[in-house]
Amino acid sequence: MEVDKQQNGSVQKSGYLLPLCALAVLYFLMGFTTVLNDTLVPFFKQGFNLTYSQSSLVQFYFYLTYGLISIPAGKLVGAIGYKKGMVVGFCVAALGSFLFYPASQFHHYALFLAALFVIAIGIVTLQVSANPYITALGPESSAASRLTLIQGVGSIGTTLAPVFGAHFILSRLEAAPDQASGVLVKPYLMIASTLLLVGIIVYLLKLPQVTSSISHKDNKGILEIIRQHPNLKFGILGIFCYVGAEVAIGTYLTNYVADVLHITEHKANVYVSYYWGGMLVGRLIGAYILRFFKTQNVLAVIALIAIVLILGSVLSSGNIAVWLMIAVGLCNSIMFASIFSLSVRGLGASTGKASGLLSTAILGGAIITYFQAVLKDNLTWGISFLIPALCYLYIFLYGWKLSQKTAPTT
User: Any idea where the Major facilitator superfamily (MFS) profile domain is (predicted)?
Assistant: First the structure.
């Protein structure tokens, strides 16, 4: 990687601290804003008297954005640069958060969904801008370490979001059920102001301008790349299944815990923070384990464990059922990175196009979550959670199939 403004060919190490701090704040806000949707699903269900499938449209429209915007956002960032791309992402996400105010005035569910769609466009743009920037900002030998560190900060945001949602959103809905829309105004105006402020700060910061010195020239078509690389073809579906399972469990965990333990959604929502917090702990453990074992083997094992935990949860009751489901978060921690790395292995100059396809597959968070909601509306929690269990089954088969080949350790 190269840095446009260089000092003897590279930016001094001290020059990385400020941009990395800015990126840490960026990832915190992305994780916080995204996981706060897990609070909005039970909130809208109760506040607007919706079915599970109707309330799941929160996640449907949010993650649908990845399928629609990832590639256009990548082209935008390629045209204006990483820094301006991040600023655009912050501003768009802030605009979506501000739109919660007019949505609350009209008290219409569809307007809230439109606001969330705008927020999601901003989040996708932020991710498309930040991921390659972190990789390019500094020596290639420490790129994985930087990305892991910044993602860890994002996990703090995902852990705190359910606690924030329980206190500032669900608890106030229970106190004033006839003012459902108004409950959301203050929290999202706070979020909007924070996003806008950070966007302005990033714009004013003199961040190193980084560009890649690696040639990305690739004349192959997308279908040709998929056909020539089975690991990518099946990996795209792997990302689809993983994100779908992860988001579905996080989305319905509040209602699931409330039903199992017979408590209010306000109290149950706090348990969601343990689910997402497990991903932070799991990343630390997984980073150590992956030093000694092949990625595909670890992926297959943790996917199998996730299946056992889900089945054990739906066949149990009380606290055992709750904590078994929460423990799935530990398994989720390294799945995305593992599937992604296995999918792009050996692609060379086609890696850029493959990354775009894999990012588009994140729309699994929309599709899987909705189908689980439909099952819950018509059947039981036990049957509905077979959907994420089947997703993990596919991931297990993906890792197990790759483990049969003599592929090098990632």
Answer: 19-407
